Structure formats: structure tokens, C-alpha cells
Amino acid sequence: MSARDRVVVAIGGNSLITDPQHVSVEDQFAAARETDHHLGALVAQGLDVTVVHGNGPQVGYILLRSELARHEVHEVPLDVCVADTQGAIGYILQQSLLEDLRDRGVDRGVVSVVTQVEVDLDDPAFTAPTKPIGPFLSEAEALTRRDEEGWDVAEDANRGWRRVVASPRPKRIVEIDAIRHLIDGGFVVISVGGGGIPVVPDEAGHLRGIAAVIDKDHASALLAREIDANRMIISTAVERVALHFGTERQEWVDHLTLDEAKTYLAEGHHFAAGSMAPKIEAIIDFLEAGGEEAIITAPQKLEDALEGRTGTRITH
Prior knowledge:
The chain is of the alpha/beta class. Helices cover 38% and strands 22% of the residues.
């Protein structure tokens, strides 16, 4: 592989929280060291690696703490929650990755960028919020918060009521110039964490945060296009993509063409909404914008997948 290969690696929540019994900060550091060991192997091969991380569980914890303490201190707005997780998760990942690179004798700096991502207030997602966030509530409490605080609320899979927010498509990465300069300067950059802090411009063009959640895989595809990455890797809980997922006809696949991925996505029953479907959508966007290939695999299989030994590869 070329020394100028530039790859965006999007790591999911399972890269930091492996199971519900291991959620402490110490547990997240331990999980990050494992993930960063595999990221470090890619950097050691000479790739220009840029990392995007998920933050769903961590944002949920901040919102729950805020909810429990709201009678004592101010609540934390959702955009600030995302910023908080970018700082904390970025710190965990960059420290662990820097240590791994030093152990390998690789002289590369690692830096995290608190990243704002502009979205469109006219995005259809804002008229039909569907992304559940925060703790479960009783129906009465949820309806009270709706009436008094303007929340959108919905019942979540018969488990209780939750606040729901929009998940709009990302339009523009505000700090993209800084990210490009850092990559060109030889840094491994961690950015667009959790899909980015969602912001919208006012009439004067000034940005303000908004209560929304941007899908990290779509944001990763946008980042990959903006930095001219030729590869994109999405790590998730499974080693490969399956067709007819969860049925007797389930079939693991090693390779899909872009046209095949678009066809299977359109059929609507292969890739779960909110799980594998947005990953396939993001990859389609990336390849259609000029990317060479994308890979979906588990975080511990990054090196093997890049060498073609596992994972699902999607190409033109």
C-alpha cells in the first residue's frame, strides 16, 4: 500500500464501552488501549489516519447526570454534551494512541479537535425527530417536559418514554481547514466526534448550537471527502456485513460493489435502520464522491480487514 494512503477510521461505541458491566472511565481507558493498538498498527504502516469516534453512551450518561442533578445545578444542553464528550473521549483516545505509537518507535503526534458541524434547519429530520436520547421517563413526566420545555417525546420500544431529537445530515465541517493543516503536518487527528457539535447559522451568519444528533458515519463520510481520503473504514460490533440479517437466509459477505450496495439498501430489509443502514448510506456517499474503497469490520480486525483477510469491502 502507498505511503500516501489517507484513511478515515470511524470507531463505534463498542470501541470504548464493551458491555454494560464495564462503563467506568477506567474501563473506557482499557477498551481504548485495545482499539488504539489496532489504529497504531495502521499508522505504523505509513497511513495517514484520521479518527472519528461515536459518543452515544457517553452523551446518555451526561444527560442522566444532568437530569438527576437538575434540582441542584443547571442542566447541560445537548450541543454542550457533545462538546464535553469530544474533549473527554478525544483525551482518552489520543493519550492511548500516543503511548502505543511511542512503544512502536513511531514519531507521530496525536491531537483532538473539538469540531462543529453545520446542519440545515430546513432538513426534514427537524420536522420528524426520531433519535432517542437521555434517560427513560414515565409517560406523565415526558408529557410534562413536552408541554413545559418544548421537548419532542416518544415511547421507545415499549421500554418507556424518552426525549427524541432530530438527526440531520451534516453540511459543513467548521474546523476543516485546521484539520487539513494538522493532517498535512503529520498529526494523527481525532475529529468530528459523535458526528460533530450540531450548529446552525443565524441571520447574521453567527453559529449557535442546536439540540440534534448528527450520525457519525455520515459525518465521517463528509470528513473523508473534505480531506481527500481514498479509504474509509467503519468499525462496528460485527466483523462483516450480512445480507438478510437476522433471518434464516443470513449471509455474510466479503465484497460488494457500489451498485450492489445501493440495490441492497433500496430493498430495505438487509440493513437495520439506525444500525447498518446509515453505514451503508455513508459509504455510498463517500464512493460516489470519488473515494476508492470502504471497509466495514470489527475494531480488533482493522489490520486484517485492510489486508483483505476479513471485513466487507465495498468498491466501485
